[in-house]
Amino acid sequence: MGSLVACVVNKTSTLSSHKTIVILNEILPVAQRPCFEGAYYRKLVSSHDYWRGIEGTVILPTIVFDEDRKHPKKPGQYLDNPSIYMGGSMGNQETDIGLTWEVVREEKGQISKQRKAFRPFLRRTEHKSGQKAVFENAPAQKEYYWYPGEEVKMSLVLLADKKVRFVVEGAGKKFEKDFDCDGYLLNTVGEFKRVNAIDQVANEGKPVQATKTKVANGEWKQTSLFRLINNEMVAVPFNKTRYTEMMCPAINYFEVKASKAQVAVGAENLSISGLGFN
User: For an engineered disulfide with 235, which of 14, 150, 159, 267 has Cβ 3.0 to 4.6 Å away?
Assistant: First the structure.
């Protein structure tokens, strides 16, 4: 197992606007990937290379739900559910780790009927080692709730063999969790991603359901991939040379705006609408 110390990101080594780091024999991303049905989502996914993780800073979007798509078995909830997350794939094991719109624990202790805040979640698929698939949320505590308009920084770093560290912090709050993933090894190749989505209840693998739900004005201020270079962890921009761009099920459901300067640092403004954009 590699040293944990070697996996801590040295902030002085992250890129500035005037510094360019060349990665020898860097693998380029594929031109396109097929969509997986079941949700409206924009995914940027890296090449399959010796990456060690991903980080990004995002302003959380506003949400307007489709009042005609209420959950029949959960009054106050909807059949659409926004999420903003990261994750990756190594050793044929997928992870989705980030923030999803969730219920909260009210001041008097009861769990809300409505989903009211973004809460951290961690998901992994099963692995050939025998490790089981799992989905878990951060505790329903106010220090782990984030709201539209708040700025948060998320990071997912391969800390050691079979272990990743997820951190989300912003607006005076922080959640950190080390997560066991048997497929994630220091000396193997893998890929990392960032995703903005309108997930749909019990719809995985099926065509998207028509909806008027809109998730608007999310803003990624920067996104970087982590790479071990000369025994030092370095953050390199997650720009167009390093990702495959996916907008599923079709491009017309997304409004993406980015200046040349934003594109250079993995930044953009993003809205998703089930009604689509002209």
Answer: 14
